Amino acid sequence: MGPWRCLLLLPLLAAAARAQQQQFMEYVERRLTLLEERISQWHDQSSRYSTELRDFKNQVLGMLETAEKEREAMRSEAESAAVRVDRLEREVDYLETQNPAPPCVEVDETLMEKQVATAKQRKNEKYTKLTDCSDTIASVRAMKILKRFGSTSGLWTKDAAGNSEKIYVFDGTANDTVYVFPRMREFTLFSATRKAARIKLPYPWVGTGHLVYDGHLYYIRQQGPGPFQVIKFNLANKTVVDSSVFPAEEQIPVFGLSPFTYIEVAVDEEGLWAIYATKEDEKNICLAKLDPTSLDIEQMWDTPCPRENAEGAFVVCGALHVVYNTRLPSRPRVQCVFDVSGTLAPEDASLVYFPKRYGSHSGMKYSPRERQIYAWDDGYQIIYRMEMKKKLEV
C-alpha cells in the first residue's frame, strides 16, 4: 500500500478509536451510576434495618426491665405474705399456749366477805420477817431532778425486782395507757413520747399507787362506784393473770393531800404491801402485807400514822414511812414510821426531810435494789438517793 493510502486511513482509524473510547466511557459511567444506586439503596436499607434493630432492642430492653420489676414485686409480695403467714402462725401458737384465760374480775360478794373476815382475824398480829433486813432511812443523801413530763400528778418507776432498766410512766390519775422507755437515757433526753412504747391496759387505773414488780404490773382499778380491785397484769404477754377485790370496807383516800389515791401498792425487801385507809379508822393509815402470787392479804395493821397532811408513803425493811407536807407546799418530811416487826420504835426513827422543790409528791416509789425513791413532784420527775443506817443505831 502506498504512502498516500496510509495517510487516508489514519483519520478514519483515529475517529474509530475515539468512538470506541467514548462508548467505553459511557459504559463505565452507566456501570458506576448503577453501582452508586445500588450502594445508596444498600445504605438506605442498612440504615432502616439498623433503626428497626435499635427500636426492637430498646423495646426488648423495656420489656425485660418491666418483667424484672414485676418479678421483683411478686417476689417481695411473696416474701411479705410468707412473713405474715409465719407471724400469724406464731401468734396463734403463742395465744394458744401462752395466754391464760382472762380471770373473772367481777365482784363476788361472798368471796369479798370471806376475804374481809379472814383479813380481820389476822389484823395487828405479830409479823415474822422473811429477810434479815434491819436498815432504816437516816437521811436523803442526794437528789436529782431529771425532767418535767406530763401532768402535775403521776407516777414513774422501774421494775423493783431483777435488772431491767425500763422506765414505766403513769401520766395522770386516771388513764389506761402506760408509757415504757427502754432506758433512763431515752426518758431523760426526749420530751415527747416517740421513744416510748405504749401498753394499753384492759381496764383504766385510778390514783397513783401502782407498782411494777417481777415482770408484773400491779395497779388499782375501781369498777364504777363499787369496791377497789388490785389487778395483776403480765407485762410479757399483756394479759391479766389475776385480780382481787381489796378486802377493806368503806375505803377513803389514804393520803390527805392526795385525794385521788385510795390504795398505794408498795414493795420493799420483804415483798409486796398495800397502804390504805377506811372510814372505820378514818384518821389513821392502815397497812397490809400482800401475797404477790395470789394477791391474798397475809396480815393487816392499824398504824398510828395520821392521814391528815400526808402526801405519800413507802415501806423500807418492813417499816412504813409516811411523808407529810402542808396545804401550802413546804418542805416534805417523813414524820411517822411504823415498823411491823417492832424492832424500831416510832420515837426512835430519824426525822427525814426532803428538799423543798415545787409542790407536793403525788407518787413516791422506793426501789429496794437501788435504795432510792422515784418521785413525781408537780410534774417533775425526781430521784432521791437514801442514806441508810441500822435500826438499832438510829
TrEMBL record:
Name under which the protein is recorded: OLFL3 protein
Originating organism: Corythaixoides concolor (Grey go-away-bird)
Superkingdom of this protein's organism: Eukaryota
A GO CC annotation given for this chain: extracellular space
Gene assigned in the entry: Olfml3
Signal peptide: 1-19
GO biological process, one term: signal transduction
InterPro entries registered for this protein in UniProt: Olfac-like_dom, Olfactomedin-like_domain
PANTHER family on file: OLFACTOMEDIN-LIKE PROTEIN 3, OLFACTOMEDIN-RELATED
